[in-house]
Task: structure prediction
Amino acid sequence: MKHPKQTLVLALGNDILGDDGVAFHAARLLRTEFSGSVEVVETGEAGLPLLDHLEPYGRVIILDAAATGECPAGTILRWDREDFRRCVAPSQHAAGLPHILELAERLGMAFPGELQVVCMEVSDPTIFRETLTTEAKQALPAMVDMAREILTAWGCRG
Result:
């Protein structure tokens, strides 16, 4: 199925696990701002089912929470396709994005030509809570700003 909008913002997470749902908060703000030019999808799916979301689009921003332990909570991280080619760490999303990208290429599937991932470092994405921590609330505007910057560079308008 071909989508009329060629750009997708795909938010990953779980909104009952506190900061693991930070991508949903960012996606809701972006949905309002870019409603005419960008498709926004929130999903708790992981692994191979993400291919169904990604395949129809030419450009995708994935929003997510990350717990790398390498930087302070609230730090905004950004990766592109080339970063995934160098990634060897496992993903909490089952078949991680590097594996999905490799599988799509091997199968000759249509896959976004442009792919950016914007994550927020969180301290613990496994605590049952429907609210964000103070660090995540404070860093949310920076996450949205980074995604907005990418969308604007791609020619998307609000």
